Amino acid sequence: RWRNLLVSFAHSVLAGLWALFSLWHSPELLSDIQDGYSVSGHLLVCFSSGYFIHDTLDIIFNHQSRSSWEYLVHHAMAISAFVSLIVTGRFLVAAVLLLLVEVSNIFLTVRMLLKMSNVPSPALYEANKYINLVMYFAFRLAPQAYLTWYFLRYVEVQGQGAFLAANLLLLDAMILMYFSRLLRSDFFPSLRKGSAGRDVDGEKFLID
């Protein structure tokens, strides 16, 4: 689990900073989400697709499929969407915007590592808890909300557009569910036990 989290952390740092750099270096991409293109953005989507494939295989080969099925669903959605973008060359800007979520994942992973290490540093955990919340809004909820609005308003609902819009809507539901679990765990600890008595702190789905 440590190895898996450290690989996830490395991907979050690289992909998050890469997405920020791509948009900073080519801000004109934001004016053409459907057909905008950059070599950097294309390579970023390829890189992240490779990570999702690697992590999927890691979960399966380590016999964690049953406990991490939500994670596998998320990865299947990401891989199928990203492969379609790589093949067609369209909507790459949308993928780069979505990969801003990796900036948020840096702090989610730090949260998990602090919990697993059992280091007596409540001040560090408390600081990360609030930074994590801000980053969740800025780099996960905000880009997701903007892209959902954009697809529903401007993208023709057929072919690849319909497929990606369906993926976005499913991801919306998952993100809101994960957000509610995170809030219960870090800000409403009296509700941290799930209906089946499961402690959500240790769930891997809080990473991605």
Automatic annotation (TrEMBL):
One GO CC term, this protein: plasma membrane
Pfam name, any one: TRAM_LAG1_CLN8
Membrane protein topology class: Multi-pass membrane protein
A single BP term in Gene Ontology: plasma membrane organization
Residues passing through the membrane, by range: 5-24, 93-114, 134-152, 164-183
Claim: NAD is one of the keywords in the record: no
Name of the protein in its database record: TLCD1 protein
Species the sequence originates in: Polioptila caerulea (Blue-grey gnatcatcher)
Gene symbol of the encoding locus: Tlcd1
